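Q: What residues go here?
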């Protein structure tokens, strides 16, 4: 009986493993400790990556309103602010705007012609015409003029200087948003052209002096033989320089090469 009891106790101290084999409690405890140690050595799971967010200001467009009339300034500001991605800043005069202009983002400038009568325009009107002209050349700002029916002379001068459009104050509410969109499209196009020109200049700067000589010859429509005569080298050497410069510019045809040269401002 004692032997049978001891055998039964030993049997109860054992348990079946998943594959049906028998193991003792001591062995099972040792195996569990080894499994725990192995799990501790495993690398911790990486936390889920945070979604990539757009930088602040991405997708925003900017409008700058200059009007001496507080009521009209507030009305136009409210109208423009209805667009969710538009940032509108209002100024009571040209001087206030000009003091911040160099620090502002590119965008649309909306100007009221108050105080710019044809008979007594003064220096402010001439300064505005200069600003419109320079903005058109640089592409940072596109200007819209809000004018009165009796002040068409300044409106004509503003259009000649490069204003996108001139709107009568009495019809501003219906036409302003569409005109602002046209002005912003011009600013985007100017910025894209500037970026392309900057990239092209960077590509041209990677060329050697001799490769630039060959490129100038191509710009003038010269053949490899003519370029070789001008530079005092063989046509085969010109072909080698031409292949190298096209490789550096990332172009595959003469037209693509000339396009980059034109964008870089090489005449």
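A:
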């Amino acid at each position: 009986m004692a032997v049978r009891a001891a055998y039964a106790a030993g049997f109860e101290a054992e348990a079946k493993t998943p594959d049906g084999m028998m193991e003792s409690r001591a062995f099972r405890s040792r195996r569990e400790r080894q499994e725990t140690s192995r799990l501790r050595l495993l690398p911790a799971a990486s936390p889920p990556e945070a979604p990539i967010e757009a930088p602040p200001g991405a997708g925003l467009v900017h409008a700058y309103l200059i009007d001496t009339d507080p009521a009209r300034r507030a009305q136009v500001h409210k109208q423009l602010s209805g667009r969710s991605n538009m940032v509108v800043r209002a100024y009571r005069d040209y001087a206030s705007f000009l003091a911040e202009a160099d620090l502002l983002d590119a965008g649309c400038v909306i100007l009221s012609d108050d105080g710019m009568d044809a008979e007594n325009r003064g220096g402010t009107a001439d300064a505005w015409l200069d600003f419109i002209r320079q903005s058109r050349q640089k592409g940072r700002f596109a200007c819209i003029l809000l004018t009165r029916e009796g002040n068409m002379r300044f409106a004509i001068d503003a259009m000649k200087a490069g204003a996108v459009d001139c709107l009568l104050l009495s019809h501003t509410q219906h036409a302003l948003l569409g005109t602002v969109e046209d002005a912003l499209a011009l600013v985007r196009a100017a910025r894209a052209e500037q970026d392309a020109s900057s990239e092209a200049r960077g590509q041209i700067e990677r060329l050697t002096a001799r490769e630039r000589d060959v490129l100038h010859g191509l710009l003038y429509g010269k053949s490899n033989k003519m370029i070789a005569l001008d530079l005092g080298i063989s046509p085969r050497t010109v072909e080698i320089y031409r292949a190298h410069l096209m490789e550096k510019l990332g172009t595959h045809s003469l037209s693509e090469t000339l396009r980059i040269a034109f964008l870089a401002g090489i005449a």
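A: Context that may help when evaluating the design: The first strand starts at residue 14 and ends at 16. DSSP finds eleven helices and seven strands in the chain.
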